[in-house]
């Protein structure tokens, strides 16, 4: 099975529960268009995932800090495919605050009768941590368990950025 739906058009987000950059619940679900016209980086995590905290969140923080003013937008989604008693909606704000990420966070649980949450189904993600990059034309151009933030920014010509743990 190929993960990541690479080189395919991005699916509209079907995540129902979101908090905004300040931790306030959104009245209506986020759509891709709400993230703007440029590149979009979506990071998927689970609160209880050690790799999400040791690698994923520090990478997302670095990318957000260094690319937010360069035509990139960001969202974080907690994909609940296991551990629903621990990976709860309230953990969105906990992680948003802990990592200083002033970006929207979503909480994606499987629909009734489904095994996986909507993002995992639509984007064929392999678990967490998971990074998906969508280009300005709406195509998935990167999808994997990790992204090297230094190499990624070097490819963009931003090679003078220094990676630091969040």
What would your notes on this structure say?
By secondary structure, the protein is α/β, with parallel strands linked by helices. It has a single domain (17-27, 42-147), classed as Glutaredoxin (3-Layer(aba) Sandwich), CATH 3.40.30.10. The chain is built from four helices and six strands. It has helices spanning 50-67, 91-98, 118-123, 149-155; strands at residues 17-19, 39-45, 72-79, 105-108, 130-134, 140-144. Strands 1-4-3-2-5-6 form a six-stranded mixed β-sheet. The longest helix is centred in the middle third of the chain and has 18 residues, at 50-67. The protein is globular, with a radius of gyration of 15 Å. The protein starts with 16 loop residues before the first strand and ends in an 11-residue tail after the last helix. Mean pLDDT is 90; it is low at 159-166.
Nutshell version of this structure?
The protein is built from four helices and six strands.
Question: Which percent bin holds the helix content?
Answer: 10-25%
* Global morphology: globular
What is the count of distinct domains?
A: 1
The averaged pLDDT comes out at: 90
Q: Can you identify the CATH class?
A: Alpha Beta
The name CATH uses for the topology is Glutaredoxin
CATH superfamily: Glutaredoxin
- The proportion of strand residues reads 15-25%
Biggest sheet record: 6 strands, mixed
CATH architecture label: 3-Layer(aba) Sandwich
- Rg over CA atoms, rounded to whole Å, is 15 Å
Helix count, DSSP H or I runs of 4 or more residues? 4
Terminal CA distance: 33 Å
């Amino acid at each position: 099975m190929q993960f990541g739906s690479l080189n395919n058009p991005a699916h509209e987000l079907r995540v129902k529960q979101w908090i905004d950059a300040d931790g306030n619940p959104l009245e209506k679900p986020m759509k891709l268009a709400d993230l703007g016209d440029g590149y979009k980086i979506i990071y998927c995590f689970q609160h209880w995932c050690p790799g999400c905290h040791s690698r994923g969140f520090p990478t997302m923080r670095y990318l957000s800090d260094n690319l937010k003013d360069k035509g990139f937008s960001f969202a974080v989604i907690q994909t609940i495919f296991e551990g629903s008693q621990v990976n709860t909606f309230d953990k969105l704000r906990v992680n948003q605050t802990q990592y200083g990420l002033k970006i929207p966070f979503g909480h994606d649980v499987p629909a009734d009768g489904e095994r996986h949450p909507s993002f995992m189904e639509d984007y064929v993600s392999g678990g967490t941590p998971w990074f998906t990059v969508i280009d300005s034309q709406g195509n998935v151009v990167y999808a994997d368990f990790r992204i090297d933030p230094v190499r990624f920014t070097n490819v963009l010509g931003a090679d003078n950025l220094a990676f630091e743990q969040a």
